[in-house]
Amino acid sequence: MYEYTNGISGNYGVAAHPRSWSGLLKPTMRTSTEPKPLGNSPIVIKLGGALLDEPTDHAPFFQTLANFIQHDQRVVLVHGGGKSVDRHLQLLGHTSHKREGIRITPPEQMQEIAGVLAGQLNARLVGLLRARGVNAVGLTLADGATTTARKTEKFSFDAGRVGEITGGDANLIQTLLRNGCTPIFSSIAMDDSGELLNVNADEAAAAIARIVSARLLVLLTDVAGVKDDAGKIIHSLDRTGVERLTQSGAITGGMLAKVRGALEASEQSGVATLVAGWNDANVADALLNIGSETAAGTMFLPSKQLCDIGGSS
Asked: For 9-58, what is each residue's pLDDT tens digit?
């Protein structure tokens, strides 16, 4: 049983599917120096990729992010940090293993992983944004009962202390947002007995998007978006489009894993999901003008009827 409470009286559950990307986001023409609020529904942004390796090396990006947050206070951030975890475990003499894209998390490593994600990295992100005028608040997924979670059993192998979100409550997030704060969640959760769990950051972001009935879920990665055979960015995809591109061989290998992950995030959250490169030259406009038809990246739409793989540029 999955239970989600979005903290808004009389409005529980997942937001309705949009008829189109444009219909969902209501694009307006504006300059990057004049962003406009997108309404009361929050935007959930997941930070990932090399951006988290050394966040202090990417000051321009964090200034752009701060500018966006300061003009639309209803932003929730989620982060992972796999490479930072790998380095820390290596220093301790531990070996990291992944299977089917999942980090095997032995119980004896869980405290160290939590220390890196919920401690070092989360605090660093809070500091980077506070230095730029954002009232950031560092959190784990368990804080304020924002999520409930359990040890995952969805794999044919034992993944250790890997968790999956089973439900949640948006009250803490809504309280923070109403008071001008920006929550920053690490991907660390707890089970019912209070034991730590390591949750895939994309899955964590999708769960948060569902819990708060987000307007949009943004996954910022090292890739600029999904490309077609000609190397052009595809603006929007749904499951039918992904299957078509997979069968044609247009997406393979690592990109295929990213595409499937983004599609799963969209379908889990019921929210349109934008995959864009944090280091894309257009990322500033993509953030400050979310909803523009010229926005960077690929939009994954949760309804099969919304496939539009023809619009590449």
From this structure: 333 233 333 333 333 333 332 333 333 344 578 999 999 877 887 777 88
Q: Cα separations (Å) of 123 from 115, 130, 136, 194?
A: 11, 10, 10, 22
Residue 124 belongs to some domain of the structure: yes
Q: How many domains does the chain have?
A: 1
Give the pairing type, strands 98-99 and 102-103.
antiparallel
Structure token digits, residue 206? 């999708």
The reply to whether 15 falls in a domain is: no
Name the residue among 80, 53, 52, 82 with its Cα closest to residue 65.
Answer: 52
pTM over 0.70: yes
Question: Would you call 1 exposed, middle or buried from its count of C-beta atoms within 10 A (0-12, 13-18, 19+)?
Answer: exposed
The answer to whether 13 is a known catalytic residue is: no
Do 183 and 139 touch, CB atoms closer than 8 A? yes
CA of 177: how far to CAs of 42, 122, 170, 172, in Å? Answer: 9, 18, 10, 9
* CATH label of the domain that carries residue 44: 3.40.1160.10
Alpha helices per DSSP H over the chain? 21-25, 59-71, 82-91, 107-114, 122-130, 171-178, 201-211, 239-248, 253-269, 283-288
- Which one from 72, 169, 202, 238 is the annotated catalytic residue? 202
Q: Is 202 a catalytic residue?
A: yes
DSSP assigned state of 144: G
65, part of any domain: yes
Question: Strand pairing partners for 197?
Answer: 189
Tell me the residue range of the domain where 164 lies: 3-9+23-306
Cβ–Cβ < 8 Å for 296, 226: no
Task: Tell me whether residue 46 is one of the annotated catalytic residues.
Answer: yes
Answer whether residue 103 is part of any domain.
Answer: yes
